Structure formats: C-alpha cells, structure tokens
Amino acid sequence: MAIFGVAALLLTSHEGQAQNGAPSGRGSFGAHLQVSEPKGDFARNTDNGFGIGGYVLAGLDENKIINWRADASFVTYANSRRQIPLAGTGGLIQLNLRTNSSIVSVVTGPQLLGPTGVFTPYASALGGFSVFWTESTVEGTQNTNTPFASTTNSSDAVWAYGGAVGAYIRVYNGRNPVRLDLGARFLRHDDVRYLNDERVRDAFENNRPAVPVRGRADFITYYAGVNIIAW
Asked: Would you tell me which of 15, 110, 203, 228 could form a disulfide with 210, CB atoms 3.0–4.6 Å apart?
C-alpha cells in the first residue's frame, strides 16, 4: 500500500537526525473537524459526511520517531426532516420526524514521524472497528432539539482497517507546542449493514421497516485541526 511506502520513507529520512530533542514530545493529543468522502459501492449509496474526531499520541522510542496512535471519530453522512401530524389531533399538532445516519470509528496503530522542524510529515497504519447506525426521533415543531421518542432503525459494528497520512505545521513553540494538523485517513469495512436516504424514504412512504443496504463501505476522511504536545 502507498501508506506503508510513505512510512518507510519517513523512517529512513531520520537517519542521522537526532537533533533538537524529540519531534513530538513524549505525548500529545489532537482534535479535528472532518469531511468524509465515500468510495466504491458506498459512494453510489451515500453522500459526503461531516463530523469531528480526536486522538492521543505516545512516543515509543528515544527520539519519538515511532509513536502509537489511538483515534476516535464521529461523522454523519445522511439526515432528513419530515413534518407529520400527531394522530388524533386532526392535523392541528404537527411533529418533526428526524432521521440521522452516522458512523463512529475507533482505531489504533503505529505512527511514524518525518524530519522534525516547522513542517513534520507523518504516516499511520490503523485498525479497529466502526459502528454504522441510523436513528429516528420525534419532536414538536416548536420544541426542536428536545425529542420525546426515538428508535434505532439500523445498527452494525464491523472491523475497520486502513491508514492515514498528514503533516504537522508548528504555530507555537512555547512550553506546550501547538501545531496545525492536516491529513487524510482511509478506512475499509468489508461487510456492513447501513441505511441511506433512499432506504429511509422508501420506509416512510410505504409505512414499513427500513431495509438496510449490505456490502463493503470504504471512505476517506479529510481532517484539519490542532495537535498539542502535552508532555
């Protein structure tokens, strides 16, 4: 894979470079805003997603070239809102029916850092799991964000694996250095059940339970955020 080729390049680029202390400190943490782009069959069934993520990073060697990363993210790739009347009110009471489809991913693995400096590239190999689920809620049209009923329409937990490439750009070099963190992460899911807008609409219009799509679901997550060296 291209990710592992980048990782090898980063590792060899450190030969003879033990300068100015560790590139990442002994440990750091980061937070991101994220946009996901579906690939393959998943792209034919869903749109882009939007969400947030965070991670912690711990150095494993003296120069902190080899690190261990633990990463969690949340993205929503489909949502809809429909107005429906409350039964028995003759249409005088209207409700909002909201349906949201989301993915939570928790992955971990080694991360290699490139040459230290203002600009520091990195590459990670990651594995873990993702949960795909869709939930519908009902709320009053004048009581938004306070649902009084909810149902999980579909939920599936599957193995996830892939990797990430990116770069840190140092913007503050004080006691706890701060760096911009820009990158992309690819995750593969070989067999998962999930709902999309088409299946949700079909269930609503025909007054029957939603039937999930089943198959492979791959996506790239593009992220931008900050990394703070904590110790």
From this structure: 203
Q: How many domains does the chain have?
A: 1
- Nearest Cα neighbor of 162 from 222, 109, 215, 104 is 109
Structure tokens given for 34: 């994220």
Domain of 103: which CATH number? 2.40.160.20
Q: Which residues pair with 151 in a beta bridge?
A: 136
> Which of 95, 52, 96, 98 lies closest to 78 in space, CA to CA?
98
Tokens encoding 21: 């202390």
The reply to whether 20 falls in a domain is no
Q: Report residue 185 CA to chain centroid gap.
A: 8
pTM confidence score: 0.85
Q: Whole domain around residue 119: which residue ranges?
A: 2-13+25-229
pLDDT-flagged residues of the chain (< 70): 1-25
The answer to whether residue 19 sits within a structural domain is: no
Convert the pLDDT of each residue in 63-95 to its tens digit: 778 999 999 999 999 999 999 998 888 889 999
